[in-house]
Amino acid sequence: MPTQNVASNVTNATQNVTRNVADKVNEYQTIASAAQGMFTDFVERVPYFIVAFSVFLIFWAASYLFKKAIIKILSKNQSYHNLVKVFQRVGGALILFVGFMVAMVIAIPGFTPAKLIGALGIGSVAIGFAFKDIFQNLLSGILLLLSEPFRIGDQIISGDFEGTVEDIKVRATTIKTYDGRQVVIPNSDLYTSALTVNTAYHQRRLQVDVGIGYDDDIRQAKAAILAALDKAETVSRKAEPSVIATGFGDSSIDLTVRWFIDEGVQANKVASIHEVIVMIKDALDEADINIPFPIRTLDMGDASVDALVDKINQQAAKQSLKQVTKQTTNQVTE
Question: Which residues lie across from 257 on neighbouring strands?
Fold first, then answer.
């Protein structure tokens, strides 16, 4: 009886092992068959992939030729400079997108643009929130390129940043600051915020303030300054400079000197201000017109002045005592 039980257990165990091995073999065969089927399908689709890639290359070449044609057609007129960029970037991207869709239809069986749009529609709300800023900057960039409030090479001020426009992209605008840093400003900020274009016009007005003494003649000072401006090379001859008395300062009569430069770039601005200040100083010195220092008058009858004088005297006495003590110590040491 025990012998029969042992034989039965061995037989059951053998059957279980055989069954498990058969299941695993079937599982591996299924996986291998699926992998083989995928490989076979891939091999069968290789010609379609090659055709799809070739079609995409054709559209890429068409996009490149389109950009070249736009440059050749519109670059003759400088007023179309930003319009060229719009057609280049938007038109080129659209051609590439169409080429990608055609290539996908060729490479993937059953793929249609409608299915892609339907798939995107499932998460349209999430995508809209995720790409809100991108779409806003994209639209702002296109509007900036079309309206042309500034161009590449212009000097602009936006918020805390000032510099020369290097590139106007669809998403952002790149400027180079005067100290050699690169700043990337989102187009939505440029489109919705106040913007100063320093080089929008061929002429730009500059000004400096200068003070003369109360004993000096304002008319004589004005004539000397205008004569100096007439000799300055950086001052424009297309507009008359002016000298205006603007107020009574603490120790001087305040004058505002205004003049124009022909090209409003930053380098010309700095050079012109330097030249004008030097020539005004020389002209006023030659005319014996004083540029006074700040003057303060002390009323010696005021108690606060007496206290200040006593404090100064005490400090001077302490300093003298320190010096005498130091000298005495040095003599004793010697």
Answer: 208, 243
